[in-house]
């Protein structure tokens, strides 16, 4: 049988995920931090280095989106923090608890919704989720389990055996299991990959409620619009290195290129010479003039453009602004780092 990565027993092979360094003894902790990840590296037995000294502090109560292309090391990092994969070096603290010296306390604070479906069980939904809670040494709380199952639209299925459920329902069970012991730090590893719209909606409702109750959420996703909508901060990892950590709003302001689209009164055959200094392009048969600028650039002067347009006799009847999506920013960042 496959070990179940969502449960602490999977890590029983030893509270040993970390590699101790002398520096960590007595190292100060940040009281407001949910996770302090310090110098985590991982070289697999194959000799492949999946993580290179990753350091990252996740604040309590934030929703942190970890973005990266396939194979960047996201799952490896999450698996290390959850004690499922052994790091080659580095340390992690969870709410100040050292991940190996204080393993039980640290692990109990963590919930993991893994990428892979691992629930091929004869057990019922109710039994599985209740068992998960018990594994963390918590007293039974049927009312809480009922609430979790209802939130995830699993209540009707509570007596069904897991193996009889559809893939989407099994994924809901994984989420319910991850929540059964009331974690304070929840990892969602590609939670919505291949799930239907209804489950995505349910899941984000649950995530919003958890966040509102103070749970810290670390999310990896391929649907960057989800990160754009939900995240407080964004980290970008590529080839095992964190290349950027930034408030989402600031990131979009800083790196997102903006466009101002002017709908002209009279179409133009070409962009007037006097406006050659601006990044302008004509579209829609000459009836639409698009000005592309980045908010940090020197030539971000819309006021200057307006007066130069007037001087050139170009009139417009309407205008719109557009901003790069997080997806575009992400793609550019990863491309630049290659
Ligand atoms: N057990 C293993 N042995 C050897 N290499 C591995 C092992 N597990 C993962 N890797 C490699 O480590 C790298 C990082 O993998 P990881 O699954 O962490 O990436 P990821 O960012 O989660 O990717 P994805 O978005 O595709 O899930 C990949 O190149 C992968 O092939």
UniProtKB/TrEMBL annotation:
CDD domains named among the record's database cross-references: ABC_DR_subfamily_A
Family: Belongs to the ABC transporter superfamily.
Top-level division of the source organism's lineage: Bacteria
Top-level taxonomy: Bacteria, Pseudomonadati, Pseudomonadota, Alphaproteobacteria, Hyphomicrobiales
GO molecular function: ATP binding; ATP hydrolysis activity
One family name in Pfam for this protein: ABC_tran
Organism: Pannonibacter tanglangensis
Assigned keywords, A-Z: ATP-binding, Nucleotide-binding, Transport
Alphabetical list of PANTHER family matching this protein: ABC TRANSPORTER ATP-BINDING PROTEIN
Protein name, entry field: ATP-binding cassette domain-containing protein
SMART domains: AAA
């Amino acid at each position: 049988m496959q070990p179940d990565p969502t449960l602490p027993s999977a890590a029983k092979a030893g509270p040993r995920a970390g590699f101790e360094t002398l520096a960590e003894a007595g190292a100060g902790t940040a009281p407001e931090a949910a996770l302090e990840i310090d110098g985590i590296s991982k070289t697999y037995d194959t000799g492949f280095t999946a993580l290179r000294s990753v350091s990252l502090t996740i604040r309590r109560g934030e929703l942190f989106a970890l973005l990266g292309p396939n194979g960047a090391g996201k799952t490896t990092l999450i698996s290390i923090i959850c004690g499922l994969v052994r790091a080659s070096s580095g340390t992690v603290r969870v709410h100040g608890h050292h991940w190996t010296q204080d393993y039980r306390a640290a692990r109990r604070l963590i919930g993991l919704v893994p990428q892979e479906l691992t629930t091929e069980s004869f057990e019922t939904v109710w039994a599985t989720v209740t068992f998960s809670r018990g594994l963390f040494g918590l007293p039974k709380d049927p009312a809480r389990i009922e609430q979790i199952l209802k939130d995830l639209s699993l209540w009707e299925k509570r007596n069904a055996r897991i193996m009889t459920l559809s893939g989407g329902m099994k994924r809901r069970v994984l989420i319910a299991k991850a929540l059964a012991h009331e974690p304070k730090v929840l990892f969602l590893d590609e939670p919505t990959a291949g799930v239907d719209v209804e489950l995505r909606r349910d899941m984000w409702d649950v995530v919003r409620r958890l966040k509102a109750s103070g749970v810290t959420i670390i999310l990896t996703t391929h649907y960057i619009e989800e990160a754009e909508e939900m995240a407080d901060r964004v980290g970008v990892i590529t080839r095992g290195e964190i290349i950027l950590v930034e408030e989402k709003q600031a990131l979009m302001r800083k790196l997102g290129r903006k466009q101002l689209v002017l709908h002209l009164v009279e179409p133009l055959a070409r962009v007037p010479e006097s406006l050659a200094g601006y990044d302008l392009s004509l579209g829609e048969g000459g009836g639409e003039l698009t000005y592309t600028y980045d908010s940090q650039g020197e030539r971000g002067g819309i006021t200057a453009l307006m007066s130069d347009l007037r001087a050139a006799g170009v009139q417009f009847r309407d205008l719109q602004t557009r901003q790069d999506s997080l997806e575009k920013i992400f793609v550019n960042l990863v491309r630049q780092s290659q």
